[in-house]
Fold:
Amino acid sequence: MDDYNEEFIQKIINTKWLGRKVIYENVIDSTNEAVKKALNTAPEGLLVVADAQTVGKGSKGRSWSSPPGTGIWMSCLLKPEIDAYKACELTLLISFCIVKVLHAVFEIDAKIKWPNDVILNGKKIAGILTEVCSDREKKQCLITGIGINVNQDNFPDEIKDMASSILIETGRQISRRKLIAGILESLENEYEQYLISNSLGNMCEEYNGLLIHHNQKVRLINGNKETMVLSKGIDKHGKLEVEYENGQKEFINMGELSIRGSSCYI
Ligand code: BTN
Structure:
């Protein structure tokens, strides 16, 4: 087991403000909920990490399996002065940081499935849930929850074609706190640049290079309707440009429609 507690996590994080304050729990309902409870008193950059969650929340109202001793279940508090509708741009920034760190620090060839799933060998290994609320001074707060399947050695039959862990896909057991530290360092840097330019313009070319479906045909899912399109990459606000078979192009907003591989889920 990796050394995983407040002291060890705090010690390895080398940032200016993100994750300088760490709350660690062995078991918690949800790290997103813990940040929500702390947001009136906590500084921007608060990091809540749990070894296990009992009510881990996934996107679209789903639950997120968070067993002990295996994954990274963590949430950060950010207070960016941006319009609320731009919060999803930060979700995209986080998936970008996770994938970059997996490449640079661990030589793991993960990819991004737009807008923010992290994929390894065609299976999802990480997801992000950003929630927006305000503190008692009416300042906008973003709670950015990150779930990464790191060292699980199996998944239930119902999801094992779609979900996996770094251990299963690489055969390597990696240090959760080293991965946390890398993500926070990368995110602090990217977030500061994002606030200066008020857009994802600085990173969209690199992000597009990390997309699993870059310049590939995908299925665009709109309710029950599926349309085959070419996925062209994001613009500086994180919208995905797609090209229909008749040559018409469109920018898709995050959350409105979803993307699937041309013949499988991913
Ligand atoms: C997704 O469905 O892709 C998003 C998953 C987000 C899971 C993380 S684990 C830490 C944080 N706390 C939660 O309850 N959810 C997020």
Summary: The mean pLDDT is 94. Residues 30-32, 53, 56-59, 62, 64, 66, 73-75, 127-129, 145-147 surround biotin (CB under 6 Å). Residues 176-197 form the longest helix (22 residues).
